[in-house]
Amino acid sequence: MYKLISSDFDGTLVDKEESIPLSTVLAIDNVRRQGVKFIISTGRVRSSVMEYNKDFHFIDYVISCNGANVYDVKNGKDLFVKKLAKNILKEIEKNFGANDIYFCKDEDWFFYENKMIAGVPFSDWIKNSEDIRKIEINFKNKKEAVLGIEKLNGLNIDAKFNIAHYGKQYLIEVTSSDVNKYIGLTKLLKHLKIKENEVLAIGDSYNDLEILENIENSVAVKNAVSEVKKVAKYKTESNNHKGVEKIIKKLILTDREEEYEI
């Protein structure tokens, strides 16, 4: 019996228009009425996810910034926060200053441009910045992003690097080395006293791998990268064809999960 659904956001729950079909929200509401928790696990900052929860509340918890923050929506409080050390921020700025860089808090993100952030010189801004949880370094294509990973690995900084892509855009997400979505999920499960085998986890991209490798009941949407499809137990339709809704109906609202085994 499932007690919690963990869904990635971009490329999984939301479609190419960055919207969530009403029928999908209603399916989520249906399982929540049965006592199943629904959480978002995303690379986004929390505020951009919570915009979708304003008119129709369907999210119980948000794991954001690739696991750097776990947030209780109902009670409006953080359950876990992991910030980036300032020396990491300085090294990223020093070595990738020619790239577009976003420094992400959980409620907002700040764009680095011409040695400035929000009109303040980077050196001054960083002195007062105590709450950066993720950095996004933007690249023109996958090849440049891969080279960026190689460069980051040579810097000998205590951080985790992950390639993400949105359409034709590629970026490297930088978090603390002991942060990923799975670690964030385990902290939430401990808080809720829910076992991993009671979780249904759905994703599409590289930052979902740790969750889908470790959670037995894992699901890849049709548009997922090949690495995700290899580790997932189940498959469903793409994000543009209500994949999350369809797997919820198959595995929870009906009793025919054998049809969706890979």
Would you mind describing this structure in some detail?
The chain has helices at 22-33, 46-50, 86-96, 122-127, 142-153, 181-192, 209-214, 226-231, 243-253; strands at residues 4-7, 37-41, 61-64, 69-72, 77-81, 101-104, 109-113, 116-117, 120-121, 134-139, 159-166, 169-176, 199-203, 217-221, 234-236. With 262 residues, it is an alpha/beta fold. The protein has two domains: 4-81 and 179-260, HAD superfamily/HAD-like (Rossmann fold, 3-Layer(aba) Sandwich), CATH 3.40.50.1000; 86-176, 2-Layer Sandwich (Hypothetical Protein, Haloacid Dehalogenase-like Hydrolase, Chain: A, domain 2), CATH 3.30.1240.10. The strands form two sheets. It has an eight-stranded mixed beta sheet. The model is unreliable at 256-262 (pLDDT under 50).
What is the topology?
Blueprint: E1 4-7, H1 22-33, E2 37-41, H2 46-50, E3 61-64, E4 69-72, E5 77-81, H3 86-96, E6 101-104, E7 109-113, E8 116-117, E9 120-121, H4 122-127, E10 134-139, H5 142-153, E11 159-166, E12 169-176, H6 181-192, E13 199-203, H7 209-214, E14 217-221, H8 226-231, E15 234-236, H9 243-253
Parallel strand pairs: 1-2, 1-13, 2-3, 13-14, 14-15
Antiparallel strand pairs: 3-4, 4-5, 6-7, 6-10, 7-8, 8-9, 10-12, 11-12
